[in-house]
Automatic annotation (TrEMBL):
Keywords: DNA-binding, Transcription, Transcription regulation. CDD domains: WHTH_GntR (cd07377). This is FadR family transcriptional regulator. InterPro entries: GntR_C, TF_FadR/GntR_C, Tscrpt_reg_HTH_GntR, WH-like_DNA-bd_sf, WH_DNA-bd_sf. Residues 1-69 form the HTH gntR-type domain. It holds the Pfam family GntR.
Length: 223
């Protein structure tokens, strides 16, 4: 394993130094192994590991390429790990959401275009007259993803999307068991949207904090 780690580190250094750039094709396996002083087996294991975390893209019959290295691609690996969360860590995910989402919402109030704001309103109006809890939660996820994307920060957006999954069941549970939860969610969404449309970042931040903290506090008391 130590030899594979060393191979991973050497390829990583080639990318960090700019010797290999996004979209570049790696040299042939035999040439690269000789150049790095590695066995071909070690190099193969390193390439396989870096492909799993979306740093490299192995194209059968074509070669191995450095990916775009965009945040959403690299952080996709975190989403995979996050899926292994236990129920007793959901509160911790909500705590992190309470830190990140209000910041993203404030940024969205400054960066979202008028067209983006209109699209946000369309998401809100897309809820059926008598929605199920699952439909409301799906709409809630779209709403928050759109705001995160509107923050203008791709890393922040990817982090928030990665953290959304583990809290989905808690949102559904709240909608099924807490009286008035669904109406409250819709009211808070409207307030967040209005603050973004009015270009009031601190008001948007405050409403987003109230919104996420409401789920967190409900779950804390329920547990």
């Amino acid at each position: 394993m130590a030899v594979t780690d060393a191979a991973i580190d050497r390829i990583k250094q080639m990318i960090i130094s700019g010797e290999l750039r996004p979209g570049d094709r790696l040299p042939k396996e035999a040439d690269l192994a000789e150049r790095l002083g590695l066995s071909r087996n070690s190099l193969r294991e390193a390439v396989r590991a870096l492909a799993l975390i979306n740093v490299l893209d192995v194209r059968q019959g074509d070669g191995t390429y450095v990916t775009s290295l965009q945040p959403n691609l690299l952080l996709d690996a975190m989403s995979f790990v996050v899926d292994f969360h236990r129920d007793d860590t959901v509160l911790q995910f909500l705590e992190v959401r309470r830190i990140l989402e209000p910041a993203a919402t404030a940024m969205a109030a400054l960066h979202m275009s008028d067209e983006d704001v209109e699209a946000l309103r369309e998401i809100l109006s897309g809820v059926p007259d008598e929605p199920s809890v699952e439909e409301l939660v799906a709409n809630d996820l779209r709403f928050h993803q759109h705001i995160a994307a509107g923050s203008g920060n791709a890393v922040l957006c990817s982090l928030i999307e990665s953290l959304s999954g583990p809290t989905t069941r808690a949102r559904i549970w709240r909608g099924l068991t807490q009286e008035g939860a669904n109406e409250k969610t819709r009211e808070q969404h409207a307030a967040i949207c209005d603050a973004i449309a009015a270009r009031q970042p601190e008001v948007a931040r405050a409403w987003a904090t109230v919104h996420v903290a409401g789920v967190e506090e409900w779950l804390r008391s329920a547990l």
